[in-house]
């Protein structure tokens, strides 16, 4: 576990999607977030107090979380300078990027000298096995997407919370840096060697016999050339009984790939179901989750209603409107259509 409270790092970011890790912590662990650090040229805010490193320590922050993401997961010189300043001020530093804090000599020197921690979240467990695809007991729901960063984690957390409120045993299974920072555990799937991706998910969500649900956070998209490999391994390893498709209706092109259009929802849903059937022949689509944060509330309701009519599935914005419609739909699925035991 990362020592809390946190100072959330935005740095010089100008891409609102690129601060999703900081935003996720501010949304789902607000009691642990004392403020945000952003440079003078950063136009973004999480609505938290804007603090210097020294002020954050005085406010009780124990760890600065480098809550930014970019293609390749690297830290530029400015991020390294700010991380060094956080250490000198007396805070641990945590990051979920592919570039490890522990591989930056100047940060290691300061951390050792100051007796502080460098916490690299994106470290997969050792001794992973390749996936075997054998049927296993339990209920599993996987969120998938038309693109990366369209709300799969938000949808997963909303589903778990709503299930628990109904008295259903449910667990969130984190597969990315933000989800892991929120949950305190998980497997960073995009840091796993390709051969072991499906096996990693089999370990993350093994057989269960309590009639509970594992809600598995999706990653990437089958239609994103950069990340489709991770999405494929996740579909096979998750062996989902149910799939929820996530989409941002305001997005016109793939994140990081200007000019490449997103797939239609029906095409994306069909492709995900086809891939999932390799290890889960009875998989069902149970709902659509939209990120309508850029829409007015009436427009958001209209988007959800039109999408539901088009696809014949419940559609909601999980953060704005909840996911009861999806859970109600799931409750109507005949038990005979579910994969509930290793002999199914």
Protein model, in words:
- The chain has 344 residues and is of the alpha/beta class.
- The chain folds into 2 domains: 6-120, Rossmann fold, CATH 3.40.50.720; 139-337, Rossmann fold (3-Layer(aba) Sandwich), CATH 3.40.50.300.
- The protein is built from 12 helices and 11 strands.
- The protein has helices at residues 20-28, 53-58, 77-89, 105-114, 152-165, 177-183, 197-204, 228-238, 265-276, 297-311, 318-321, 324-331, and strands at 6-11, 33-38, 63-66, 92-95, 118-120, 139-145, 170-173, 213-216, 242-247, 284-290, 315-316.
- The strands form 2 sheets. Strands 7-8-6-9-10-11 form a 6-stranded parallel sheet, with helices on both faces. The chain has a 5-stranded parallel sheet with strand order 2-1-3-4-5, with helices on both faces.
- Mean pLDDT is 93; it is low at 336-344.
Keywords, separated by commas or semicolons:
Rossmann fold, disordered C terminus, single chain, 344 residues, 2 domains, alpha/beta
Summarize this entry quickly.
Residues 53-124 form the D-glutamate N-acetyltransferase-like N-terminal domain. The chain contains twelve helices and eleven strands. The chain has helices at residues 20-28, 53-58, 77-89, 105-114, 152-165, 177-183, 197-204, 228-238, 265-276, 297-311, 318-321, 324-331, and strands at residues 6-11, 33-38, 63-66, 92-95, 118-120, 139-145, 170-173, 213-216, 242-247, 284-290, 315-316.
